[in-house]
């Protein structure tokens, strides 16, 4: 048994060696065929149909080249064949034929053997591939191929055992002897016969290609190491001829996969990534049998973490939003497949008082969509905003995570009314306090934001202060005296102050203010001045005419039972422009005495002196700072009445020419000036334009010195008063000529006659332009 096993192992080794040699011969034949196809048609055959077409063309072309040259040789060899073959050889042939299996596969193997032995040598010297090879060289190569094939047959050289071995295996033949050597003439006739076999083989291959191709499915995990073995193409228990194969692959297959055409082994060239490419498809074409479609599927690994489309997002909720309200958040996407894609979401941090929770659902596209849901009560005044850190986890073990920050702003709702810092306020004010005197200030706060928290104040006139003795600043809450107070008339004033916010549905609250007026008994006259301007401020217009009222002055002496009876009032200051007048010695009026000019004197300081008739007399003084307001009584004034400017004739539109400047002694809008150009077509003012704010004059279009060498512009300066005042200035622009016009004769043709006896130097013609 041991000896039998050794012999079996040795026999199997020899069989494997012969099989490898057979595959190498097939590769050589395939490469030679493709070389011819490349040289003939400029590209390598990539599919079965193209190869079949090539085989037919190759056979016909080879017949076209060989038949004319070898027809006589075939004829001579055929005539002498019967004489050259001896009886022993016939017996040897007969014996060998009996030993050979009567199998069509064996015959096909013999024909392929003849193809590889007969045609490979002439192929390398084909005149279409090597045009420099002549006919004699071609014939010598052919004879060499025949001799070589004969010697191989006589010395039992190794042959192509690919189909031979498979036919022997199918017929259950244990051993077979090498076919006998053939005569050269027999080899040549066999070679011609093989040409016909090529045609038939091409037809059968083309028909086979039309059959349904077989499918080979392989799988490999993404991320495996480079040069990882995926599998073999032809593991089909010998149904096809096996390698070598012609590979027809999709784009990028041979970039990522290493395909050994000789063995059919497939390995990785690079690290595969299923998310980049999930499968690879190729067609392997064997030398015989049906085509094999190989599909390599890349299996998924958990190599991608869930990823949110952006690291953070911002949403807003009104603080009165009810529970269970949802807002859709950006979902995380995982390039991996189930179960390695996104599986759940969690709130990691920032969820103060568990105000929010997450819910998710998966759609048909496989994405796990995310919603943020309110689970508690929102109060902007307590928590104005949240910053939630949300994580997405996939189904790996351990899971991979992706994070996103959701910044939530709680929008304000007007749900808080203003609150006073006191429920009741108290103040005292002397009865001689002037109008505009501040009494006290109330304050209320609102915890809402923006307009909802902006508080304005008002006095409820229906419930208090119907005489409007006081006024309140709606913004600050300061209460001022609005009318002169009188202790004898009313000693206590009760006010109801309302604080109201600016919400769409405003909320309000009230507070009470008690103001007590105190009696003045200091034996000194008091002076009360009320200015008669539109806003009760100390001002008078410079256009006021003599006799116009400026202010009202009242003086009180508490020591006198008869009011104003013992008081004398005088006015100092004002350079004689103001004076006092009275009709009943009780009310004094400050009037304009002389015309005013704000541009000369813009402010006056007046002193009102009240002196009683006591012994010794007492007096009181009050200073009045009076501001003179402006009227538009001064027109603009230019720095110059006449300006000169220069500009080149070739200046482009927009070129600066000159900047004029005017001043107005008025103030405010009355001194705001704007510039313009008067429309004077006769002086070509349309060539220029002026900036109304800066007074910069620029060219509007191209100018022409020949048309107008010195255009005259009239610049008008107008102020912003009502009505506006204006003034003008003249600008002379000198245009400097450039040589932009060629001379033009007054005539295009001159004709003159000259007598032949005219002396030298006599003028015969004068031209002009």
UniProtKB/TrEMBL annotation:
<dbReference type="InterPro" id="IPR015919">
    <property type="entry name" value="Cadherin-like_sf"/>
</dbReference>
<feature type="domain" description="Cadherin">
    <location>
        <begin position="639"/>
        <end position="745"/>
    </location>
</feature>
<keyword id="KW-0325">Glycoprotein</keyword>
<dbReference type="GO" id="GO:0005886">
    <property type="term" value="C:plasma membrane"/>
</dbReference>
<keyword id="KW-1133">Transmembrane helix</keyword>
<feature type="domain" description="Cadherin">
    <location>
        <begin position="309"/>
        <end position="420"/>
    </location>
</feature>
<dbReference type="GO" id="GO:0009653">
    <property type="term" value="P:anatomical structure morphogenesis"/>
</dbReference>
<feature type="domain" description="Cadherin">
    <location>
        <begin position="235"/>
        <end position="308"/>
    </location>
</feature>
<feature type="domain" description="Cadherin">
    <location>
        <begin position="540"/>
        <end position="638"/>
    </location>
</feature>
<dbReference type="InterPro" id="IPR020894">
    <property type="entry name" value="Cadherin_CS"/>
</dbReference>
<dbReference type="Pfam" id="PF00028">
    <property type="entry name" value="Cadherin"/>
</dbReference>
<dbReference type="InterPro" id="IPR002126">
    <property type="entry name" value="Cadherin-like_dom"/>
</dbReference>
<protein>
    <recommendedName>
        <fullName>Cadherin domain-containing protein</fullName>
    </recommendedName>
</protein>
<feature type="region of interest" description="Disordered">
    <location>
        <begin position="1"/>
        <end position="20"/>
    </location>
</feature>
<dbReference type="GO" id="GO:0060429">
    <property type="term" value="P:epithelium development"/>
</dbReference>
<keyword id="KW-0106">Calcium</keyword>
<feature type="compositionally biased region" description="Low complexity">
    <location>
        <begin position="7"/>
        <end position="18"/>
    </location>
</feature>
<feature type="transmembrane region" description="Helical">
    <location>
        <begin position="53"/>
        <end position="74"/>
    </location>
</feature>
<keyword id="KW-0472">Membrane</keyword>
<dbReference type="GO" id="GO:0007156">
    <property type="term" value="P:homophilic cell adhesion via plasma membrane adhesion molecules"/>
</dbReference>
<feature type="domain" description="Cadherin">
    <location>
        <begin position="421"/>
        <end position="527"/>
    </location>
</feature>
<keyword id="KW-0812">Transmembrane</keyword>
<dbReference type="GO" id="GO:0005509">
    <property type="term" value="F:calcium ion binding"/>
</dbReference>
<keyword id="KW-0677">Repeat</keyword>
<dbReference type="InterPro" id="IPR050174">
    <property type="entry name" value="Protocadherin/Cadherin-CA"/>
</dbReference>
């Amino acid at each position: 048994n041991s000896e039998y096993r050794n012999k079996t192992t040795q026999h199997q080794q020899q069989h494997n060696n012969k099989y490898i040699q057979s595959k190498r011969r097939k590769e050589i034949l395939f490469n030679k065929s493709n070389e011819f196809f490349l040289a003939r048609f400029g590209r390598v055959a990539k599919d079965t149909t193209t190869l079949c077409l090539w085989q037919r063309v190759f056979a016909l072309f080879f017949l076209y080249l060989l038949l004319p040259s070898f027809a006589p040789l075939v004829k001579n060899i055929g005539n002498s064949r019967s004489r050259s073959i001896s009886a022993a050889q016939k017996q040897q042939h007969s014996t060998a034929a009996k030993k050979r299996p009567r199998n069509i596969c064996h015959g096909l193997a013999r024909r392929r053997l003849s193809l590889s032995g007969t045609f490979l040598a002439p192929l390398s010297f084909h005149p279409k591939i090597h045009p420099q090879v002549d006919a004699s060289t071609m014939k010598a190569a052919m004879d060499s191929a025949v001799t070589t094939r004969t010697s191989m047959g006589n010395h039992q050289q190794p042959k192509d055992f690919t189909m031979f071995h498979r036919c022997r295996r199918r017929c259950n033949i244990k051993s077979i002897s090498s076919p006998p050597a053939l005569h050269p003439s027999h080899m040549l006739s066999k070679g011609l016969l093989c040409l016909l076999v090529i045609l038939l083989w091409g037809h059968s291959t083309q028909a086979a290609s039309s059959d349904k191709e077989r499918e080979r499915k392989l799988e490999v995990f993404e991320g495996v190491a480079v040069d990882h073995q995926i599998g073999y193409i032809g593991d089909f228990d010998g149904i096809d001829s096996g390698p070598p194969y012609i590979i027809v692959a999709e784009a990028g297959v041979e970039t990522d996969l290493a395909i050994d055409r000789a063995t059919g082994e497939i390995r990785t060239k690079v690290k595969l990534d299923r998310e980049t490419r999930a499968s690879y498809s190729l067609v392997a074409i064997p030398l015989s049998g049906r085509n094999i479609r190989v599909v390599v599927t890349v299996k998924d690994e958990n190599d991608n973490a869930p990823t949110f489309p952006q690291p953070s997002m911002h949403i807003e909720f009104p603080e009165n939003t009810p529970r269970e309200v949802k807002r859709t958040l950006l979902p995380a996407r995982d390039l991996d497949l189930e179960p390695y894609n996104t599986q759940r979401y969690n709130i990691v941090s920032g969820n103060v008082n568990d105000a929010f929770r997450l819910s998710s659902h998966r759609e048909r596209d496989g994405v796990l969509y995310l919603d943020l849901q309110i689970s508690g009560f929102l109060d902007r005044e307590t928590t104005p905003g949240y910053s939630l850190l949300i994580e997405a986890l996939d189904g790996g073990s351990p899971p991979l995570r992706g994070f996103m920050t959701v910044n939530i702003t709680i929008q304000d709702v007007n749900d808080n009314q203003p609150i006073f810092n006191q429920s009741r306020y108290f103040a005292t004010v002397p009865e001689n306090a002037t109008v505009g005197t501040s009494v006290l200030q109330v304050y209320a706060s609102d915890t809402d934001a923006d307009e909802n928290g902006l508080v304005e104040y008002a006095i409820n006139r229906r419930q208090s202060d119907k005489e409007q003795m006081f006024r309140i600043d709606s913004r600050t809450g300061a209460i001022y005296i609005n009318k002169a107070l009188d202790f004898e008339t009313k000693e206590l004033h009760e006010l109801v102050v309302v604080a109201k916010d600016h919400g769409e549905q405003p909320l309000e609250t009230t507070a009470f203010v008690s103001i007590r007026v105190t009696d003045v008994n200091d034996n000194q006259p008091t002076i009360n001045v009320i200015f008669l301007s539109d806003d009760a401020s100390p001002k008078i217009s410079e256009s006021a005419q003599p006799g116009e009222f400026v202010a009202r002055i009242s003086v009180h002496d508490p020591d006198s039972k008869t009011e104003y009876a013992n008081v004398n009032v005088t006015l100092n200051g004002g350079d004689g422009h103001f004076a006092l007048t009275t009709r009943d010695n009780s009310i004094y009026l400050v009037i304009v005495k002389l015309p005013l000019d704000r541009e000369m004197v813009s402010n006056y300081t007046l002193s009102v002196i009240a002196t009683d008739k006591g012994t010794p007399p007492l007096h009181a003084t009050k200073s009045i700072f009076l501001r003179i307001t402006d009227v538009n009584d001064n027109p603009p004034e230019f720095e110059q009445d006449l300006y000169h400017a220069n500009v080149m004739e070739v200046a482009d539109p927009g070129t600066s020419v000159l900047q004029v400047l005017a001043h107005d002694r008025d103030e405010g809008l009355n001194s705001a000036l704007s510039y313009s150009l008067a429309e004077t077509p006769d002086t070509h003012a349309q060539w220029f334009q002026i900036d109304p704010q800066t007074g910069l004059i620029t060219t509007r279009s191209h100018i022409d010195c020949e048309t107008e060498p010195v255009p005259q512009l009239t610049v008008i300066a107008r102020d912003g008063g009502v009505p506006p005042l204006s003034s003008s200035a003249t600008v002379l622009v000198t245009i400097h000529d450039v040589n932009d016009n060629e001379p033009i004769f007054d005539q295009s043709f001159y004709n003159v006659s000259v007598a032949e006896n005219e002396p030298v130097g006599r003028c015969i013609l004068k031209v002009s332009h």
